[in-house]
Design goal:
The chain is built from nine helices and no strands. The chain has 182 residues and is mainly α. The protein has one domain. The longest helix is centred in the middle third of the chain and has 35 residues. It is globular, with a radius of gyration of 17 Å.
Length: 182
Amino acid sequence: MSIRKKHGMDLSGILAGLFLAVVFAKTGVFEQIIAFGGEFTIITNFIAGMFFTSAFTTPAAMVALGELAQAGSVWTVAGIGAFGAVTIDLLIFLLFREKLSERTRAFLSIPKYRRFLHLFHHKFFRWLTPFLGALVIASPLPDELGLAMMGLSRLHLPVFLPVSFAANFVGILLIGTVAQSL
């Protein structure tokens, strides 16, 4: 399958996830799930955090995390949600690190980007890449891009775990804070 087709499929999945998030938010599905969770808010926060990592589920997770933050403590939602997100980030990082890096390298090897690809070999970029990856993880953007950046930099697991947790925590905290202010 060509790179263009893969990216088209990825974009279609992201748009479908965004559409479902809007539908779920408008119909009150998330409120019902949170109400159903009742005393199991830790599990609900953890699962919502797990969904915060994928390009396909990030929009729905953002709505769910916002609803959870409105119903409880934003700090608790961010902490427990970050543990859920790190769980999935770790799986992606360990299982698909090479594949994500390979797809990123393939994308960057397009002739227009050859000079950009050459930057990856610079020492400064080895420090900058994990930092940029952490910013992507903290943002509402899908974690796969940030994880690919960390994989390209050959970040070691003892460094990856706290970086991923901190980035997810900050991202979820920002979502929860915005949701509480609305």
